[in-house]
Amino acid sequence: LISQAWDVAYGNILGGPAWIDSQHYDLSAKVEGDGRLTKEQMQPMLRNLLTERLHLSVHREHKIVPGYALVVAKGGVKMKANTGAPFVGMSGGLGFKFQNAPVVQIASVVAHEVKKPVVDETGMSGNYDFEVKFTSENFPSDVPHPDYGSIFTALRDQLGLRLVARKVPQDYLVIDRVERVPDGN
Hints:
By secondary structure, the chain is α/β, with parallel strands linked by helices. It is built from four helices and eight strands; from the N terminus they run αβαββββαββαβ. It has helices at about 1-5, 40-55, 105-115, 150-160, and strands at about 15, 55-70, 80, 90, 95-100, 120, 125-135, 160-175. The strands form two sheets. It has a four-stranded mixed beta sheet. The chain has a four-stranded antiparallel beta sheet with strand order 3-7-5-4. The mean pLDDT is about 90.
């Protein structure tokens, strides 16, 4: 809920009591009339609910942490610029495929795979169509699958991009206070 309310990756939430990862809540809310909320409309309402009911207080911190920079590899980019097709994206155990997506989307998906932050330093603008197949370290080893090589090799060979280890900026949401039992109902 906190991740959704503040639009921050779950891994970028710090602090809080030990139960924060195991406590579950059922939340049911209704909008007046037949309207549907966008994510942007829902977020302040959810923040307000968490603040009022659970006495949640948070602050943001900016840190420089170990991670990767996504850069153009020697030999240049091997992706095709999108020619107008709509956005579509899919990622799974053996790779990811996107259509009409910015390069920052690659950084986001790769960060999940390498379990470290990845920042886009390609200097590329616009949207692209791309597909990458790799052998994920997160894929169960008892399931037979083809060996596509590591994410590092796949990015270089298939997209003309590479990951460079370096310290990168990262924003975190820090939980200062939260109550386990909500007020009211």
